[in-house]
Each structure stands twice: as C-alpha cells, then as structure tokens.
C-alpha cells in the first residue's frame, strides 16, 4: 500500500494490508525539539523546526503569508527521520497580524475592507497554483498524504475579537459574528475550492478550540447557529472536491457538542485531550462511526516504558476497530526524553499492526 492508501484505509474503518498509519498528531513544542537536539536528534533535522522562516527566500515568504504549503516540508523531514509515515501538512489561514482588533461593527467593516485588499493581492489563482501544485505529484503517487488545516467559524471571531469580547458578542453583536462567518465561508467556497482542485487533501481539519477542561464555551444552540450552520454549507463542497475525512481540532472537553458536530457533517476529532476527560474508548461506544486522530495521553510518555505500554493497552480496542490514527493528545511535552519518545514510536508501529483487526474477524 502507498502511504496515502494506508491512511485512507485506516481512517475509513478498513483493514490495511500490513499495518495502520503511523503518524503524529502535531509537531512538538520548540522546547521539546531543543531537548531532542541535545539528546541526539541531528542538528540539521532539529534546525528544520527551529529556524523560523530563515529557510525561505523573500518571494517564498511573501507567497506563504496566507498560502501555507512550504512549512510542512520541514515537519515531514523531521517526522520521517523518527520513523513516522510521511504526512505533508499544509494550511490556509486568514487572520494573522491584525488580531484581536474587532470590538464593534465599524471595526469589522474596516478589517473586512482590508481583507478584500489582501485577497486581491495574495489569493490569486496564479499564487494558489504556485504554492500548492508542487505537492500534487507526490500526493497523487501516494508518497505522502496531505493534511490541510483551516480556521473555523468559532476560531476566527475569537482571534479577531479576543475571548472576552467574543463571548459578549454572541449576545450583543450576533450580526457581526454572522457577518464574519459569512465572509469566511465565501472565501472558502471560492479560494479553498481552488486549492483543493490543485491539491486534493485527504484530511481537512478545522481549527476551533471552543472547549476547555470544564466543557464547551458555547451551548449546543449557539453552536448550531454560529458554527454548525456554516459547516452544513461548507462540508458538502469539501466532499465534492475529494476530501475524505473532515476533522475538527479542539482542545478540552467537548462531549456535549459531539452530536451537534456530527449532525453538521464532521467525521472526526483531534487531538482528544485525555487530561480534559476525553476518553476515546467511552466516546467510541457512544458514537461508533466517529473517527479520531490523537487521544494518546502524552504525559504517559514522560513516565517511561511501562506507562507507555499501559496507555497503548487502554486504547487498543479502538485501534482494532479502525477509524483511528493514534498520536499524542497534543504537542509532545518538553518533559519527554528522546529515548522514551523513540520507544513510544516503536510501540506505535507494533500496535498499528492491529488496526482494523476486529473488522477482519467479522
């Protein structure tokens, strides 16, 4: 199987011919990379994640401002060195240096006008092709899978307003949040569609971060109005453009909103924060068709080999069911030694030989 075929089979509740995908959820914190470098990661590998934008020339920096295709090359180089399957991470982002600035309708109107000028300058068809088309050949051959992240309809207003202003705005300025989301949706239905025509991503994940350790920051009713209604208009288009798996990236405990996410068309979630109470064994029992990436308690890696093995035993039933690519439940912590992390990867390869095993026995 190619790497791309293996990932799709793993996430589609199939039984891969040899093993399921061996991938990581996110790339590590900078402090973690610095520790790994001091413990044996080659300097040239570590530097790929520590060098900022020094590896880009001026034209590339300009192009990559919003159309984030180049940065994932460094992450894939690092992950392949450690033994993970190749995943090419790309992004499509809008709110950047102008956040948080929206506190009323007038501020949003001014920012939207600025956004229109940025769209005209940067989001041209020529730039989209230039940024993403170099990845198409390797993706089409199956050398790597493509994982595209975009900003969600809760995430964007939070970035533009700040948390406190956003929370009040759901009650005091709902029309502004709706207008922000309509604007985002219109861009996705135009520019994101163009990206997917150049580079059909197998996995698209939507950054939201709408929950904390004590639960979601918005109610199911607010979710349906301000988030889910926009998913319902976006996700069918993503599917039409070949996206097989649409995930949401949110930290915290979002258990109460899972039915709402699913009703809006979401296929799965990452990173499934164990320390916020997100237990995939329990969640999978309640929602059998839900897909996951992540869900391995990253803190167990810092405790050594026995703890690593116990955590794999905990999640093995879900691995055997398929529809799941295990990885850390957030970025690998700086308290993790390179030795323990390498052991974690070796065990991950072994347990992924069980991916979809229950399906095979049926």
Q: Can you summarize the main beta sheet?
A: 8 strands, mixed
Q: What percent of residues adopt helix (DSSP H or I)? A: 40-55%
Q: Tell me the number of helical segments per DSSP (H or I, 4 or more residues long).
A: 17
Q: Biggest sheet, strands in spatial order? A: 1-2-3-4-7-8-9-10
List SSEs in N-to-C order.
HHHHEHEHHHEHHHEEEHEHEHEHEHH
Contiguous uncertain segments of 5+ residues: none
Overall pLDDT: 94
Question: What shape does the CA trace take?
Answer: globular
Beta strand count: 10
Kindly name the structural category.
Answer: alpha/beta
Oligomer: single chain
Report the sheet-strand fraction.
5-15%
Rg, nearest Å? 20 Å
Our measurement of the CA-to-CA distance between the termini, rounded to an integer number of angstroms, reads: 22 Å
Can you lay out the helices and strands and say which pair or pack?
Elements: H1 3-11, H2 30-38, H3 43-50, H4 58-63, E1 67-68, H5 72-82, E2 87-92, H6 105-122, H7 125-132, H8 136-141, E3 145-151, H9 155-161, H10 163-172, H11 174-198, E4 203-207, E5 211-212, E6 215-216, H12 220-240, E7 245-249, H13 258-263, E8 268-270, H14 280-286, E9 291-296, H15 305-321, E10 324-328, H16 338-351, H17 357-361
Parallel strand pairs: 2-3, 3-4, 4-7, 7-8, 8-9, 9-10
Antiparallel strand pairs: 1-2, 5-6
Helix pairs in contact: 2-3, 3-5, 7-11, 9-10, 11-12, 15-16
Can you tell me about this structure?
The chain is of the alpha/beta class and 362 residues long. It has helices spanning 3-11, 30-38, 43-50, 58-63, 72-82, 105-122, 125-132, 136-141, 155-161, 163-172, 174-198, 220-240, 258-263, 280-286, 305-321, 338-351, 357-361; strands spanning 67-68, 87-92, 145-151, 203-207, 211-212, 215-216, 245-249, 268-270, 291-296, 324-328.
